[in-house]
Every structure is written in C-alpha cells, then in structure tokens.
Amino acid sequence: TNTGSILSFAVKAGTTGGGATITAISVDNGLSSSTTTLAVGSINALAITAQPTVSQGQQDVVVRMSVKNIGSATITDLSGSLLFSVGGANRNSQYNVTADPANLTSIAGNTTVTLAYFVDVNSAPAGEAVAINGSVTGKVNGTPVTDPDADTPDTWSVQTAAALTIQAVSTTPTTVSRG
C-alpha cells in the first residue's frame, strides 16, 4: 500500500549471533527511504535489580543481573560488570564491586541465570539518583559474545550515612552490686 507494508524474513545468524542492515526505498523515484539494523545475539542482559536506597559507606549491598542465553549453544567464560551513572556521567569510581564467587561461568542454551555482585558505596554524593546498568560477556565455541546494556536497568538513591552519638547514659538504680 502507499502507507505501509509488512516485510517478513529470517536472519540466519548462527550460534554466535549476527546482524542484518535493511534499507527500504520508495518506488516514487526514491524520495523516501529508511534504514534499520537488526542485531541477533546469543547473550542478553535482561535486568538489574537493586535496593532502592543505599547510604554512603554502606558495604556489601547486593545487586543482581539476570542474563539469558538466547541461543542454543552453551555460553562459557561468562562474566559481567555493573555500570553506575548519573545523568550519563560515569560514577564507577564511587563504588567497589565484587562478583559473587558462586556466580556461574557458563549458561546452557535457552537458559536464564542470575549473577550477583557485592557493592561498597564509597564516595557517592548524597541525594543522587544513580542509574545502575550492566554488561555481560562470554564465548560461544570460542567466539566472543556480548551485551553492553541491560534491557531493564535499575536505580538507587544515595543518602547520607547515619551519624549516631551517645549524649548520656543513665541507669536505675544508680548503683549495681556484683554477684
């Protein structure tokens, strides 16, 4: 039709993924055109999950990333990393991230796993809403595969660490006997 058409085809990308660039040009002397790129991958960082609020100086905050092998071959050498940002500005230096030693290092075909990370909140300024994203890499039959961004990132707010002081101690009775 003049207003829209549907095009359907298969992209054969193999077990490691691949892509196709599609260009459509109108029949009226090429006055209208559009180009899009389809990427077909083997690995997908699905979502990041974190608690909504952290405090300056807090340690071992658990952040999880769900990862799916969308191909049929096993992905080996699986590893991921977390990315922290505020308004697009990199904030990775304000956090220490340690991968959970129990994280799996391979994913069977068409399977989803969850990777866990322990995060120490160092010098993050209070009041910031921090975006948390993730990337994941692995290998399919020795060929590197990657997903640089999670489909669903998360955020947390950084609050000032609690500062408690003991003002006074009083007891009743004022004396206590031993024994």
Tags for this entry?
mainly beta; 179 residues; elongated; four-stranded antiparallel beta sheet; six-stranded mixed beta sheet; 12 strands; single chain
Characterise the protein shown here.
This protein has 179 residues and is an all-beta fold. It is 0% helix and 49% strand. The chain has no helices and 12 strands. The chain has strands spanning 18-25, 33-40, 43-49, 53-55, 61-69, 75-86, 89-90, 95-99, 112-121, 129-140, 143-147, 154-159. The model has no long low-confidence stretch (mean pLDDT 86).
Summarize the structure.
The protein has no helices and 12 strands. It has 179 residues and is mainly beta.
Structural class: mainly beta
Low-pLDDT windows of residues: none
Strand content: over 45%
Q: What's the helical proportion of residues?
A: under 10%
Q: What is the terminal separation in angstroms? A: 97 Å
Shape: elongated
**Distinct helical segment count:** 0
Secondary structure tally: strands = 12
Mean pLDDT: 86
What is the N-to-C order of secondary-structure elements (H for helix, E for strand)?
Answer: EEEEEEEEEEEE
**Major sheet:** 6 strands, mixed
